[in-house]
Design goal:
- It is built from three helices and three strands, in the order βααββα.
- It has one domain.
- The longest helix is centred in the first third of the chain and has 18 residues.
- The chain is 31% helix and 14% strand.
- It starts with 20 loop residues before the first strand and ends with a helix.
- Strands 2-1-3 form a three-stranded antiparallel β-sheet.
- It is an alpha+beta fold.
- The structure holds zinc ion.
- Zinc ion binds next to β2.
Length: 109
């Protein structure tokens, strides 16, 4: 079966077959992003009008970057002991899967 998404290892640049690797995000980076967003909101928010919070276009350009997904073969993972939120590649083979999994770590405590 053809997959919509092909996992390519960040380290060796080869494709990752089912069972040979995972996508993962470092939870420390997810938590830091949440802190950065709260700081950004305090710095950049204009006074609310009609219960609507607004931001200038130029301030949106400085919105903090999200924690990146990383993709590695199990054998290539440079940080196997990281506090990671990991998904085996066979569980993320479509765009819909990727959206679903991306919504998970940001919703965790
Ligand atoms: Zn690799």
């Amino acid at each position: 079966m053809a997959h919509e998404l092909i996992a390519i290892c960040d380290e060796c640049k080869h494709t990752i077959a089912d069972g040979e690797g995972s996508l993962w995000v470092d939870m420390a980076e997810v938590n830091q992003h949440a802190i950065n967003v709260r700081a950004w909101e305090q710095l950049e928010a204009k006074p609310a009008t009609d219960r609507l919070q607004t931001y200038s276009f130029s301030s949106l350009l400085s919105y903090p970057d999200p924690a990146p997904w990383r993709v590695h073969h199990t054998a290539c993972d440079p940080a196997p002991n990281a506090n990671a939120y990991a998904i085996e590649v066979h569980r993320c083979r479509s765009w819909a899967d990727l959206v679903l999994w991306t919504s998970h770590p940001s919703g965790k405590a």
